[in-house]
Amino acid sequence: MQSTRGTEKGPAGTFESIVGKRALPYVFLAPALCMILFLLIVPVVEGVFMSFLSTSSAGVVSWVGFDNYRILFRESRFENNMRASLLYLAGVLILSTPLAYGAALLITGKFRQAAYFRGIFLLPWISAPMVSTLLFRALVDPQVGPMGRLVQHLSGSSVVVLGHPVWAFVFIIFHSFWRSFPFIMLFLSAGMSTIPSEIYESAMVDGAGKWKRFTNLTLPLTSNQLAISMLMVTVWTLYDSETIYAFTNGGPGYATETLAVRLFKSAFINFDLNTGAVIGVILIIMSTLFMAVYMKLVAGAGGEGQ
Amino acid sequence: MTNRRRKITKLVSDILVWFGFIAIAAFVLLPLLWGLRTSLAPEFDSKIIPSSFTLKNYISVMSRPELFLYSGNSLIISIATIAIVLPIALVGAYALARFNFIGKEFGVVFMIIPLLPAIAVLVPLVTYMNKLHMYNSLIAVILVNSVFNLPFAIWTLRNFIISNPISIEEAALIDGCSRMQMLFSVAIPMMKPGIVSVVVYTFINSWNSLIFSFALTPSPKLRVMPQGILAFMGTWGTQWGGLTALGILALIPPLVLFLLFQKYFVAGLFGTQLK
Which chain A residues have a beta carbon less than 8 Å from that of B180? Predict the structure, then answer.
């Protein structure tokens, strides 16, 4: 790192004069980049590589090409994992985003009230997934939990929520909704409050009604935040293994076993790292696809607004 | 007449807003309050508000030595992560905010990296750490945890630096400070809110995280708090009094930090307009 190519040197004998002015930003960024390179980029590449390997029971590693993928794609369990992941994602996304957007419209600009409540709204986000999972399990206990009793009352049977394939899934989605909704609401509200009020005033002078102001101003001007919050929800749910694992272990059967839970179980409990790597690659591809779709949506909405 | 009608509309919309706020707050608080109730209620009290309160569950949880082992490990990981992330993020963020250099556009990478699935990156890291003889050590967890907290820290600090006027820094340079002196005696003190926000964020994230430890440290001695909760959930079954007490205790450290530094923390997460 001892480059002295910089032509303009700082005061003699200082750190800056040793490394040279032009190299300084690179020196400043070097520790961060090194960490990211060695602990993130290299592992990702290695993970892709690992997905093409197979380890025999004797520990012999061999190159098998796409065999791991082929075997996985033929499994009905994998099909189920994929369906569970998409269902989980769709459930939380459809529940969280519109409700958070509506709630953000309600709370934006109401600073007097917001000051009292903001701390409360962030509680789900600061509580550990394991803590909220534990509290929700207490809530849904069939004997003593109020929600467990409520479900039994509604369905008219002595159903055990986390032991039932559909109710368990609904409850897992509900828990993730509880975790994500208030955060997304505050995030969207922050975006809405950056829109200068003059824009609304001039639109009102032009005779634009409430609905018109919403579709022509608020919505396009917050499309960026909307896309980012959808991406956040997507990433949270797609990668979430721990809450489902703690709720149901992926069960009953494989009913709630998403891709991330499958990865978690196969890689870190059964130590089948090659299968884990394959699912990891699939998760990375899926999140990239979703990112591309949301970016496209933003570009579309932004273009309309201008 | 119109004035009166406007007043009534305002009143109605105010009530609606308050109602909305209270409804959302109730939704958020109910699971937490039920947990608190269960942890404080005597074992077979099924009333919504129990007739008496007891600290028995807390005392029995606190008497388990594992609790201090797990929270100690969590604390070590959280503090070490902050010690690694903060200095590295500070200089990196300063470079991104104040220098013009070739390749600066790639700073956006720091926003995209958090979108990678930690769980997928952990698979090769198990082999990797094994080769480095760091598997099953807190150092492995600290390093990996640091990498995943670094991008947010850099980006937040960068935004805070940009929002500070550059003229003060320039004045210090003209007065004969070296850039390093200026950085430590002028720029960094001005970034206090950003630093507080990054420290709180990193602490909460580290304290709450399960999967890094789950993947990298199988030894029971190295368990962190969330792993402890998972293990207790497995062995205590439906002893909700003790379990909820454990959950509430695990919530206290991030909650205290959050309440103390709420203003800075919220500004760091959502930008200064919500302050």
Answer: 14-16
